[in-house]
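=== RUN LOG ===
request id: a7f3
mode: sequence -> structure
chains: 1
length: 730
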Amino acid sequence: MEKVTVLPSEKLINGWIDPSFLPAGEDKYYIRNRQVRVPDGGWRHLTSDEIERLVKNDNTASSWDTIWVTDEFRPKLIKNNKFYGTVRIGRVSDNGLQFHDLRLPVGITNSSIHSCDIGDDCAIHDVHYLSHYIIGDRCMLFNIQEMSTTDHAKFGNGIIKDGEGESVRVGLHVMNETGCREVYPFDGMITADAYLWAKYVDDKPLQERLRAITQAGTDHHRGYYGTVGEGCVIKTSQIIKDVQVGPCCYIKGASKLKNITISSSAREPSQIGENVILVNGIVGYGSRIFYGCTAVKFIIGTNCNLKYGARVIDSILGDNSTVSCCEVLNNLIFPAHEQHHNNSFLIAACLMGQSNMAAGATVGSNHNSRANDNEVVAGRGFWPGLCTSVKHSSVFASYVLLAKGAYPAEMHIRLPFSMVSNNESAGRLEIVPAFWWIYNMYALERNSWKYQTRDKRVTKIQNIEFDTYAPDSMEEAFEARALLEEWTGRAALGEKAGECGTEELRVAGRSLLEGEPSRVEALEVCAAGAEKSSRKVLVRHPYKAYHAYGDMIVHYAMSNVLRYMEEHPGETLMSLSPLAEGTRQTEWINLGGQLMKASDVDALRADIGSGLLADWQAIHHRYDELWARYPQDKLTHSLQLLCAMSGAGGINSQMWASLVERESRIQDFICEQVYRSREKDYLNPFRRATYRSEDEMLSAIGPLEENSFVQHIRQSAAETKDKLAQLIIK
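=== RESULT ===
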C-alpha cells in the first residue's frame, strides 16, 4: 500500500515529471506548450496593480511571477483562489455564460489551480483541485472535487509510457474471458479494427504489427496535459483524472472519470450524466452515458447510449448502439445493438450487429464448469427473446430469433431468418426456417429502414451494411437451401439414407422440395448437427422455407441490379450478363459491420503483417477503398448467385425476363405481407381486449392504413415495379 510522504514545497510545483524522462534541453512544460494555442498578442506578466487587486480578493499564488494573462484580463473577477506553478489565463471579460438553466459569471472563484492553461471567457467556480489541464474557450467548470492529470496519462489508449512496464498496459479482453483475444484500445478504434485483431489470433505477423502500430500511434513521452475542448460544461462532479474531453461536451454529476477520452464536437456533442463511473476507455462522438452507469475497460462507439445503471466491462460497443439496465462483459458487439431491459446478461460473445436482447436473456454461461475460454458467435440480427438462456459455445446464422426458454445445450443454427424454440413437452428443439420472411415481413423489412434512419453519425469511420439482404445473409440462405435438400432427402429415404452420399441426398430432397408441398410436409425433417444433444431437432415447414430462401436471393440480386443501373444509366441487362460468369465469392467476412470478400480480408491481413500498411490510418484507408468497391462486388455476387440458383453458366434474355417477372411478384408479396403481418396486431382479440373500444385502439396505435411504414413500403414497391418494367424495355 502506498503511503503519504512529505515533500518540500518546491516539489509541489517542480516534481511533476521525473527529470530522467525529459529530453535533453526540455523542461516539464515542453509538451504542454505544444498543446496550447498562444492567444493573439501573447501572454504577459501581471502588473503590480493587478497583483494587489488579486491579493485583496483573497487570492494566493506560489509565485505571482508564474501567473500569465492577456491584455483583456480583469482581476476583479478572480476571487478566493490558490494558484500553483505556471498558470496562464486568457481573456476574462465582464460577461456571463449560460448552458440550459446554469448561469455563471465569467471568472475564477473559490478554486485551487495548479499548472493550468485557461482559455478565453471561462467560468471556473468551486473547483477544489484543478491540476495540469488545458481548458478551452468559454468553458463552464462548477463544483468539481478533483480534476487532475498525471505525467503518465494515456487517456484510455492501450499504450505504455517511458519507464513503464507491460503490467500497466490496459488491454480489452473481448470475445472470451481468458485474455487470449486481447486488443489494445486507441482513440479512433472501430469494431472493424477490433475484430481483425481479436479474430485472427493465429496470424502472428498480423498480431505483432497491430501491437506495434498501436504503441507507435500515440506518443510515449510523459507530460501530456488533460484537455477540455471549447464550449464544454462540467458541473457537480467528483473525480476527473487523466481525461481528454472534446469540444461541447456536457458532464454533470459524474462520480469518477479516469483514464478516458471523450470524443465530442459541436456537431456531435457527447454527454456524461449523474453517478457515472468510467475507467480506462474511449467514448465515441455524440454518445450519451447517464443514470448510474459503469464502464471499465471499454470502447463505446459513435452515437451510442448507455443508461439506467448499465455495466459494460472489458467490452467494445459498436456505433448506434443502446445498452440499458444490464451487464455486458467480455464482448465484441458490432453496430446497432439494442439491449434495453433489466436482468439481461451478455458474456464472452461476438454479436455482428443489428441485434436485440430481450429482458432476462442470458447469453453465455460463465465457464461450462471447466475453462472460461468458451464463446458465442451470432450473425447480424440476432434476437434472443424474453428469458432465454443460451450456452457457450453456440453459433447462429443471421437474423435468428430465439423463443422464450432455457436452451439446455450448445447450438449451431445455420438457417438464417429462423425462429428457434425449445419444445420441452415434445423433448426436442424446433426450427422454423425463414420465419421472418414468411410470418413477420413487417419487422423484417423495417429492420433495414430503422437502422438507417437511426444512424445519426456525422463522423462515420466505421462503414456499415444495413441492408438485411446482403452477401453474408444470402450466402447463408443459399447454404440453407442445400441443407434443406439434404435433410429432406434423408427424411424421405429413411434407413436407405445411410447408404447415400450428400449429393444423392440433395438430389432426392430437391426433387421433393420442387414438387408438391404435401409430400414434404408429411415428412419429419430433422436438422443434423444443430444441437449438442441426442434429441431430435425438428425443421418446421421446410417446403415454405426452401422457396422463401429462393425468393430472398432473387429479391437481393434484382435489387442490386436495379440500384446499379440507376447509378449507371448506360448499362442494360444484357451488358451486365458477363458479370455472372466466373467463380462466385461464397465467403464474406463481416468486419465490424462492413462486409468484405474473404480474399480481400486475407490480402488486408498480409499487407498489415508485411508492413505495407504501416499505421491505422492506412488500414482505415484500405477499409474505405474496399467500401467504395463494395457495390460492384455486390452486383457481381448477385449475378453469380442467380446463375448458381438456376444451375446455368450465364444469364440470357429469356432468363432476365423470368427474373424481372419473379421480382415483380416478390414486390407484391412483400407489400402484402408487410400489411398482413402488421394487421395481426389489429385483429388479435387479446390485444383488442386491452382497449375499451376500437376508437381508443385507433387513437392509441393509429389506423393501419395510415401507418407510415406500410405507406413507405407500398410506395417503394410501386416505384420498384415501374423500374422493373423499364428494365425489359432497355
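=== NOTES ===
DSSP finds 18 helices and 46 strands in the chain.
The longest helix spans residues 616-646.
=== END ===
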